[in-house]
Specification:
Elements: H1 3-17, H2 25-44, E1 55-65, E2 69-80, E3 89-98, E4 103-113, E5 118-133, H3 138-143, E6 147-165, E7 168-183, E8 201-214, E9 225-235, E10 246-257, E11 262-273, E12 283-284, E13 300-301, E14 303-314, E15 319-331, E16 341-353, E17 361-369, E18 372-379
Antiparallel strand pairs: 1-2, 2-3, 3-4, 4-5, 5-6, 6-7, 7-8, 8-9, 9-10, 10-11, 11-14, 12-13, 14-15, 15-16, 16-17, 17-18
């Protein structure tokens, strides 16, 4: 593989593996799956014949987010193809450090066999992450009062899948999370913030079905197609979980070319968790691809929805621009989403394609939400 291509395609893995590892188990699995799929498809070149020769690269990547501040991620990836699959096997890892004292390390592996009928992804990571906790519910996020907490934990998951129809895969996901939460310093806790003390030392073990539909023409820079995923995870106390909760997550990304240089992209998503779920596994904004402009976890509750649209336009040369807008909401239950808090967001960004051979961009976005704003530096599109 061309070294310049490698230097770009390794970036999504590094960012995925070190996205707030323990901010939400669901967001972690989505980030890792997306990042590693991007790596595989870029390495394969989609239409290029599989290259059996291994390739390895280690590269530093700058980043910025409203939750963790500015930082750098050192990521590495090994690409190899022992069975001649269309998608090469990928093994990679990353380590991250940010300006607010957070750090994380993670490693993952993804492979396919049987002419890509069978797929398997595994990931493990440890994080020591400093975040702000605003409480649970819409009024908590709108009050703009928070306490500083520290999350230390180990997370791992496996995700085997089988293709049952063209572009359609089903599988089983198993997730393990061992978490320790503490207040970062002596501080006064606002009376309207209820600290979830029972969740400060806990273990979450979940197992459940997952389904994926992917008709995109290119995973790096799709112009047409759909990527949709549904997962329904159940806490299993027999396996050591402290919770027997349920979590349902659905999302779909839709892409439509409007011309040679312009693409319209849209995303719809929803989340619902059962009563008794830990605060770190309920639905929240800011840790995944939903509604830029909000700090991770400022708005969280047992149900959420979001829809957003983005227009991406490639200028001459390697530069491009994007404009996006969206709206979502949170509520205490799925049935109350229609009466819950509405969260709008709007923003714009600049794109730069760092490699002529690989259509993946360095992304700089500025977004404004409800009494909130955020600046992002990342690799790859938000969705």
């Amino acid at each position: 593989m061309n070294p310049r291509v490698l230097s770009i395609v390794v970036a999504p893995l590094a960012l995925a593996l070190t996205s707030p590892v323990i901010a939400s188990s669901a967001q972690t699995t989505e980030a890792v799956q997306s990042g590693m799929s991007t790596l595989q498809n870029a390495a394969a070149g989609r239409d290029a014949p599989p290259d059996p020769k291994p390739d390895l690269l280690i590269v530093p990547i700058p980043q910025s987010s409203p939750s963790l501040g500015a930082g750098v991620t050192l990521g590495g990836g090994l690409f190899y193809n022992p069975n001649g699959s269309k998608e090469p096997w990928t093994t990679g890892g990353a380590v991250m450090a940010t300006s607010n004292g957070s750090w994380a390390v993670g490693a993952g592996h993804k492979m396919a066999w049987g002419q890509d009928r069978y797929k398997f992804t595994a990931f493990a990571g440890y994080g020591d992450v400093n975040l702000r906790f605003y409480g649970v519910g819409p009024s908590a996020g709108e009050s703009n009062r928070s306490v500083d907490i520290n999350d230390k934990g180990f997370v791992a998951f496996v995700d085997p899948q089988i293709r049952v129809a063209p572009n359609f895969y089903i599988g089983v996901r198993a997730l393990y999370l061992d978490l320790e939460v503490s207040l970062r310093r002596d501080q006064d806790v606002p009376p309207d913030i209820e600290l979830p003390v029972r969740d400060f030392e806990s273990r979450l073990v979940q197992v459940g079905p997952v389904a994926v539909y992917d008709s995109r023409d290119n995973s790096l820079s799709p112009r047409n197609g759909i990527y949709a995923q549904a997962s329904w995870l159940f806490g299993v106390t027999a396996l050591g979980s402290d919770y027997d909760n349920e979590r349902l997550t659905l999302y779909a990304n839709i892409y439509k070319a409007l011309g040679e240089r312009t693409v319209f992209a849209a995303r719809v998503s929803t989340c619902a968790v059962s009563k008794g779920s830990p605060f770190y596994d309920i639905c929240l904004y800011g840790a995944s691809s939903d509604l830029r402009g909000y700090e991770t976890g400022r708005f969280r509750d047992r149900a959420s929805w979001a829809t957003q649209a983005e227009v991406r336009h490639r200028l001459k040369g390697r530069f491009g621009v994007a404009a996006f807008a969206g709206v979502g909401g949170i509520a205490s239950s799925f049935g109350d989403l229609g009466n819950g808090t509405v969260l709008p967001a709007v923003g714009a960004g600049l794109r730069w394609q760092a490699s002529k051979e690989t259509p993946i961009n360095l992304r700089i976005d500025y977004a404004v939400g409800k009494n909130s704003n955020a600046f992002y530096v990342s690799v790859g599109e938000a969705f």
